[in-house]
Amino acid sequence: MKASTTSRYATIDTGDLVIGDKAFNYNTLEPKLLKANSLKLFNTLFGTDHTLDNLHKYMLGRKTECALTIFSSDTKINYPQYILDAIAK
Fold this sequence. Notes:
By secondary structure, the chain is of the alpha+beta class.
């Protein structure tokens, strides 16, 4: 991830990762979860040893598997602020 800018509503993250011919969207659930935690934590959860960009690709290609792994794990994770804000309402 390269830069973050804050708008009135959210933090917008950008980076250089390209998948196929499209720029990677750093503003979806998986990248935001990874940003709120750590590369090491998610590599441990998934039993992988990816770099940051490769972990983004891994999570993008295995959304359901990653979600189930996170959900069924006893490991405490931090949630992105926008999710905490939505739950609090």
